[in-house]
Amino acid sequence: MSSLNLDDFTDLIERPDGGVRRDAEALRERRIVPPGALGRLDELGEWLAAARGEVPVRQVERPRVVLFAGDHGIAELGVSARPAGSAERLVRAVLEGASPVAVLARRQEVPVRVVDMALDCPPDAFPEDVVRHRVRRGSGRIDVEDALTVEEAEAALRAGVAIADEEADSGTDLVVLGDVSVGGTTAAAVLIAALCGTDASVVTGRGGLAIDDLTWMRKCAAIRDALRRARPVLGDQLRLLAAVGGADLAAMTGFLLQCAVRKLPVVLDGVVSAACALVAQRIAFRAPDWWLAGHFGGEPGQEKALDRMALEPLLDQGVKVGEGVGALLALPLVRAAAALAAELPEREPGEEPAAE
């Protein structure tokens, strides 16, 4: 039996400060630019002010990309364009600065943290700061067996909580959240279908490398079979993550919940982070108020999850690579919104807003 009481998160998570948001709206009304002329940047600046509890809002000064990594046993069925157990190579590329997220993070001067939760490789394959939270080597094949034991799921979720605390304590003021996984989109689709009450075909996408029709059919069948195993445990989110999630997904769920507790804003990336957010919402209904959807990557499951949480993506550039790339592309928008909210001058008394 688990000793973790997930209901505690409901009591610990508060909404962003409504009074501060109203102050931010009032300040916007006094700016020289007419309300609405900046589109969603106005709304984004107000959200950030409420999340950070200050008007005018300060610039995002210490963002960090946090990537949770793992291999999923379901990849053995050929549901991904990448071979099973190959997430190690993806992680190595990130750490060596040779992946898309590493290139973009370097250009934006944003540090990247990779957390190995369940890579299918020896634990000494990476430095201690990458592997110290690892729960197991790979996750189970969710169409026929549990991804994790309940004890492993709890350990992974607790690890996510601890990592969120580490980031908040170190001064990180915004997190760009992503995953580095093989088979992760399949597990994510199962969670979304289960929590939204939909069929496998509704949430089955083409993944990061645009799988062919035959692979899509295998993926759809795997999600269908895993859904049968997910539905009996829908009322227990920890057991759900153990049955059809994975160590990386359980850790991301705990991370998202604790970021909301610590009032640390998070930009979500693709379908995997959206699935974990959906699980976290089921645990604590106020938690999504602390998250932004960075982009839409084309996965139907992501669209379903974001719609359920009433989160509208900031970008839609067709980015499917994962690894937090789409969310990182949205970071300049967040910074632009903060700059405009803080630095645009106010009108003189009696002065009309500048013409559009």
Tell me about this structure.
- The chain is of the alpha/beta class and 356 residues long.
- The chain contains 15 helices and five strands.
- The chain has a five-stranded parallel β-sheet, with helices on both faces.
- It starts with 6 loop residues before the first helix and ends in a 13-residue tail after the last helix.
Core attributes:
49% helix; 356 residues; alpha/beta; 9% strand; globular; single chain; five-stranded parallel sheet
Give the N-to-C terminal Cα separation. 61 Å
Which structural class matches the secondary elements?
A: alpha/beta
- The string of secondary-structure elements, in order, is HHHEHHEHHEHHHHHEHEHH
> What proportion of the residues is helical, as a percent range?
40-55%
Q: What is the makeup of the main sheet?
A: 5 strands, parallel
- What is the 3D form? globular
Mean pLDDT: 93
Strand order of the largest sheet: 2-1-3-4-5
Low-confidence stretches: none
User: What would you report as the Rg, rounded to the nearest angstrom?
Assistant: 20 Å
Query: Strand content of the residues, in percent?
Result: 5-15%
State the helix count.
15
E-strand count:
5
How do you describe this structure in short?
The protein is α/β, with parallel strands linked by helices and 356 residues long. 49% of the residues lie in helices and 9% in strands. It has helices spanning 7-12, 18-29, 40-52, 87-95, 100-108, 128-131, 150-170, 184-196, 200-203, 213-230, 237-244, 247-261, 271-283, 300-309, 325-343; strands at 63-71, 112-118, 174-182, 266-268, 291-293.
